[in-house]
Request: fold
Amino acid sequence: MNEILSHSEENYLKEIFHLSEGTNQKVSTNALAERLNAKASSITDMLKKLAEKKLVSYIKYKGCELTDEGEKIAVQIIRKHRLWETFLVNKIEFGWEEVHDVAEQLEHIQSIKLIDGLDKFLGYPKFDPHGDPIPDKEGKISYRKSKIQLSETVINSLVEVVSVNEDSLSLLKYLDEIELNLGTELKILERYTFDESIKVKIVGGQELNLSKKVAENIGVRFISEI
Amino acid sequence: MNEILSHSEENYLKEIFHLSEGTNQKVSTNALAERLNAKASSITDMLKKLAEKKLVSYIKYKGCELTDEGEKIAVQIIRKHRLWETFLVNKIEFGWEEVHDVAEQLEHIQSIKLIDGLDKFLGYPKFDPHGDPIPDKEGKISYRKSKIQLSETVINSLVEVVSVNEDSLSLLKYLDEIELNLGTELKILERYTFDESIKVKIVGGQELNLSKKVAENIGVRFISEI
DNA sequence: CATAATTTTTAGGCTTGCCTAAAAATATTT
DNA sequence: AAATATTTTTAGGCAAGCCTAAAAATTATG
Reply:
């Protein structure tokens, strides 16, 4: 039940959670291998181990899924990750593109007292610097119900940026450069069918063309039509 | 030169530093084994490896010593440890007896930006919650020149507690109980030759008998005679 | 629907960091 | 200084977590 897990085991649980978030699908061995930068055979090894510990359910050749217990642990790791990111940006003057690697280390620190104390110290933040929700002590995640991908918006709407995918360092740097931050408002001007890129205008700023790939990694909230 | 070390390697360097601090002696395999809770044979293995990396000098059967490079690294780990302890006590409401284990984890986080940012955030503290000096970014340690062990004080002197050994959880808890903290002033009343225990009076508090063992683990600064 | 392509698993190996047991070196006693 | 005790090293092993290469299962395609 409350055995201590290795960093590696914790990372597996976290990535299985991320890969299955939203979908009802099982997570494939290859998908995990890519996220974890490991070979498929290593994944198989670890899945067997995690299945034995009852943290994932795993059927040969059919992929895996977190058990309730496994999910509980995964969510707490994500809580730690996002609280630390918030700490780094709010207290230690890190930029949002710099926090990921350090948070990946900090998320494995074992101390409930520390993480709850950190939560309090930060004022019980609900979202991290990339706009992702921070699970509470009980594991409840308050997803932003109205959030959609920028790539899914309709022409002539005004939206607010509420999240960006933290996984790509170069995306975050790019967004910094064009001064597109959380809270930035965008007018959706046009969508080009040939490559599915979109033209937007930053309210109070420049007009930009954003590729489909970029737009998929930005979360927005609809405000109004223009 | 700037290779990444494992947690284990870092712990070895740190403990070699602690064991040789003050003395000019080399550190014996057995002494290290005890501090690291490992068998002597494991120590030998690792010393060979660290010697190969030029972080310790090691002659078979003769013990080991840090090289300049090894000492530099050790000091930076101690810097991290003590800064994190300060963070936990000053910002997260930890007691001084609770910080050690968590700091042992945090000291291995790899990010110079984080540790320098933390230093700044804490206001460049010179001493940690146990009174031990915090090395600066360059590795300079400002030892308290006037510090002596409580066990070495002379009768009828008034002293101030400036440090306590952080290694013993039960000592720290005991000191908490009797309300002996950093900054507490003590009058040295008597020394019993049969067991080398001493009688002291906490200024504004109770009279106490402290065993030799306890007195050796408390650092004080001489104020005056009474 | 059979064959090809892809995905996943198995089998065997490697490194790290620890262990035990036995051997070798050093230190201590008498 | 010889005998004994202690310390340290060597030799061989083990678990974790990764790897490569080959085999097996699944999925896609002609």
Q: What stands out?
A: The interface with chain B takes residues 88, 91-94, 98, 101-102, 105-106, 109-111, 113-114, 117-118, 121 of chain A (CB under 8 Å). Residues 68-91 of chain A form the longest helix (24 residues). DSSP finds eight helices and eight strands in chain A.
